[in-house]
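Checklist before submission:
- one chain only
- standard amino acids only
- sequence pasted in full

Submission:
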Amino acid sequence: MSEVFGTLIDLWPLTVVAGIAALYFGWRKLTGRLRLFVMMMGGAVAGFFVSVLLHNAIYAVVLVKLLQRPDYDEPVFFIVAVIACPLVFAAGLIGALITWFVQRRQRQSG
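Returned file contents:
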C-alpha cells in the first residue's frame, strides 16, 4: 500500500500542473456554469497543494523552531487539504459533468 501512496506523492508536480492548466483552460476557453465547475476543480487541486505546504511550514517553522513544541499540530490547513479540497473537487467534477451532458443534449435536440 505504501508503494501506491509513494507513487502518488512523487507525482505532485504533475498534479499541480494539471490544476493550473484546469484553471487556465476554464478561464480562457469556457463560459457559464461549465467554467465555474472546471475552475472549482482546478482551484481545489491548487488549494490542496497550498494547504499542504502551509500546514507543513507552520508546523516546522512556528511550532518546532519558534515555540519548540513538536507535540502540537496545526489543524486548519490540514482540514482544508484533507476534507474541504476533495469536497470542492467532487462538487466541481459532478457539476461539470452534469453541465456538459445537459449542454450536449441541448445541442443535439435543438
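Reviewer check: The radius of gyration is 18 Å.
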